[in-house]
Amino acid sequence: MQIPISKFDAISQQTIQIREPVLADGARMWRIAEDSRVLDTNSSYAYLLWCRDFADTSIIAEIDGEVAGFVIGYTRPAWPRILFIWQVAVDHPHRGHGLGVDMLDALMESCALRGVAQLETTIAPDNPASVAMFASLARRRGAALTRTTLFTADQFPGGHQPEDLYRIAPVTTQEEWR
Asked: Which top EC class applies here (predicted)?
């Protein structure tokens, strides 16, 4: 289900298009993740597959015809009413304007219309910006945000930080929560 959204950002004086990703977006998504210096960068192949196989659970933000950010997610195979957010990325020039939350909000709306009832993501304890972004999303939607430990540091090879599981529920459409 494609839900294109157009929004005018008064701060940047630019129109933001939010839409589902297409194959042509994969390389730019990989570059944004790589340039972030904070995300685990997947292979370029993985971003292409994401655009092909998980476009309906992912979002692209485009400004002036260029990909400015993305959210990639999937519904859990055993729990199809749960949307897991894998990555949220905003390119450096577009940070600080709420683009990440706008993309998440659009994706939640799209997925809620298809029956998704809960959103999950993992966040490392040293990432307060991501915690704040998901807390803002939960507030915008009138939903609860909970945190539990999911993966401990010793479960990861190579010194990866632990990851806490954050849940936002219920996921509702804008019509339902207004």
From this structure: transferase
Give me the residue label for tokens 């939640």.
Answer: 108
User: Which helix (H) or strand (E) segment is 71 a member of?
Assistant: strand 66-76
For the domain 5-177, what is the CATH code? Answer: 3.40.630.30
Q: What tokens does 138 get?
A: 């939960």
Angstrom distance (rounded) from CA 45 to CA 60:
17
Report the number of secondary-structure helices (H) and strands (E) in the chain.
Answer: 5, 8
Beta bridge partners of 166: 121, 147
Over its C-alpha atoms, the chain yields an Rg (Å, rounded) of 16
Tokens describing residue 135: 């807390």
Q: What is the pLDDT of residues 73-126, one digit of tens each?
A: 999 999 999 999 999 999 999 988 889 999 999 999 999 999 999 999 999 998
Q: Where are the domains of the chain?
A: 5-177
